[in-house]
Amino acid sequence: MNLQGTTALVTGGGHRIGRALTLALAAAGCNIILHYNRSAEPARLTAAEAEALGARILLRQVDLSHLQDARPLFADLPPDFGPVQVLVNSAAIFPKDKLADLTLDGWSQTFRVNLRSPILLTQAFYLALPQELPGAVVNITDWRTERPYLTHFSYTVSKGALDAFTRTAAIQLAPRVRVNGIALGAILPPAGASEAYWQQVLATVPLQRGGGADVVGQTLLYLLGNDFITGEIIRLSGGAHLKQG
Ligand SMILES: NC(=O)c1ccc[n+]([C@@H]2O[C@H](COP(=O)([O-])OP(=O)(O)OC[C@H]3O[C@@H](n4cnc5c(N)ncnc54)[C@H](OP(=O)(O)O)[C@@H]3O)[C@@H](O)[C@H]2O)c1
Questions:
Q1: Ligand 1 center to residue 93 CA distance, Å?
Q2: 18 with 43: CB under 8 angstroms?
Q3: In testing the pocket of ligand 1, which one of 17, 110, 113, 159 has its CB within 8 Å of the most ligand atoms?
Q4: Among 16, 39, 41, 207, residue to substitute to test ligand 1 (most atoms within 8 Å of Cβ)
Q5: pLDDT at position 243, please?
Q6: Tens digits of per-residue pLDDT, 136-150?
């Protein structure tokens, strides 16, 4: 897909990995609906950076845990925005929980943000996409669905379901819409994580470093630019998935 002049929606696009995704799309010539929830100021700063790259930005605040109907996000766009042809589902939460102490509220919150909202957004995106235009969805997931965390039960299960959704949507929405995923590993330390924790994580990475958010932006552009890839989930793990023991 030639991204120049197309419109993209990025969830959680205001900071950290979402910011890198927004800026990669801006540099590739997209106009962007930049979604955020609580991070209004980082979203505004990212919007200004993207505008400096030539993009037009529409900021949209939505708490995805309450999302019932995603259609309004794709409707009534400003005249200089085309129909949304790219959807990037990056917003997620990473709560600490275990099966033994799981609560229904905690489980529901994780699933509403990490799984239900990408599904509702993808459905609304597909229904709003004009018949003659191609589209692409990229879901941001986690390679640890293959080797589950001991401490993030609802997150790991929600991302595993997001992987299954990615493949299922790819087959259901072909040929017009491609659906792919990027399974992240040690890209950025979780917000609030100690340096000691991060060093412990990096010790499990064969490439012996964190990826940094820009590699996620590069991979997003690769997936969007290659029109023969669908139903694929690319690991950005620095080789951590190969590690024995
Ligand atoms: N960091 C890593 O190395 C790593 C590793 C594996 C996978 N990932 C995945 O990569 C993606 C981005 O990671 P990150 O580390 O940049 O995430 P993060 O810093 O924890 O930020 C989470 C993002 O999700 C949004 N969000 C959370 N709850 C929301 C809600 N109820 N409604 C709407 N938006 C909500 C936040 O928006 P606001 O701040 O505006 O509220 C924020 O933009 C996630 O899907 C994550 O699972 C990251």
A1: 6
A2: no
A3: 17
A4: 16
A5: 85
A6: 999 999 999 999 999
Bridge partners (DSSP) listed for residue 57: 32
Kindly give the distance from the C-alpha atom of residue 232 to the centroid of ligand 1, in angstroms, as a whole number.
21
Burial class (CB in 10 A: 0-12, 13-18, 19+), 208: exposed
116-174: per-residue pLDDT in tens?
999 999 999 999 999 999 999 999 999 999 999 999 999 999 999 999 999 999 999 99
Using alpha carbons, select from 236, 241, 209, 242 the residue that is nearest to residue 222: 236
Confidence of residue 244 (pLDDT cuts 50, 70, 90): confident
Encoded tokens for 1: 């897909």
CATH C-level class of 7-242: alpha beta
Mean per-residue pLDDT over the chain, rounded: 97
CA–centroid distance, residue 131 to ligand 1 (Å): 32
Token pair, residue 242, equals 């190969």
Q: Is 39 in the pocket of ligand 1 (CB under 6 A)?
A: yes
